[in-house]
Amino acid sequence: MGGGILSSAPLPRAFLDRPSHEVAPDLLGRVLVHGDVAVRLTEVEAYGGPGEDPAAHTYRGRTPRNAVMFGPPGHLYVYFTYGMHFCANLVCLPDGHGAAVLLRAGEVVAGGKVARSRRSGGKAVADRDLARGPARLAVALGLLREHNGIDAIWEGSREALRHLDGHGPAHPLTGWPAGSVVLLEGRPAEPAAIRSGPRTGISTAKDTPWRFWIDGDPTVSPYRAHVPRRRSTAATSVGDVPSS
Question: Peptide bond preceding 72: is omega within 30 degrees of 0, i.e. cis?
């Protein structure tokens, strides 16, 4: 594995076994690795549990769609939105609680060529825009529907993928099984550089200050207040779940 933040230790499950609004600021500066690409997280949003946070997918309880959010902590909750984008979240709290942190933006710190090929469609993309926004981040990392529920904590990911040991290519950045997604310690953001404010683009609990970002980082996405859409089936974040 390379030097610097890519040589940092995998984070333990206990790191995510806390309320999402406590985990969220602590995720800033951490690194999520999948395949050839690694992203240093610079912006996240916390979403709470059933009956607690009306902007969360879990607000009305457990469903087949949101089941991954109910634990265990450290798994990815990947959902499809607007009929065209995937967004990725890290599950928090023990089994049954239903909370997560949406990964809103980050800096691609390894695999820039791969991330750019996924993002560009033949067009030029600035470095700061490769993972600037939740859909772009998911595309850069190559996270799709089949990654919903995958364990991003190394001991769990290793166990789930143990059948690949010696039978397939190693993870290009970590040397671990190629299918693994791993959350690394990275370099935590300095507390003085962390800012918080309202979450982006949600129609309920819109003033809850659970969006966290690294002040002055160019990869942080612009804040956008919710704008009502005519299509009631759309969802812009972990919030705004279509009613059914």
Answer: yes
SS3 call for 140: helix
Please report where in the chains the tokens 């290793």 appear, as a residue.
158
Would the pTM of this model clear 0.85, i.e. be above it? Answer: yes
Query: 21-72 pLDDT, tens per residue?
Result: 999 999 999 999 998 999 999 999 999 999 999 999 999 999 999 999 998 9
Q: In CATH, which superfamily holds the domain spanning 4-205?
A: Methylpurine-DNA glycosylase (MPG) (3.10.300.10)
Share of the chain above pLDDT 70, in %: 83
Q: Cα torsion for 3, 116, 139, 56, to the nearest 10°?
A: 70
Report the alpha-carbon distance of residue 4 to residue 182 in Å, rounded.
Answer: 16
What does DSSP say about strands 181-184 and 31-34: parallel, antiparallel, or unpaired? Answer: antiparallel
- Give burial (CB, 10 Å; 0-12/13-18/19+) of 146: exposed
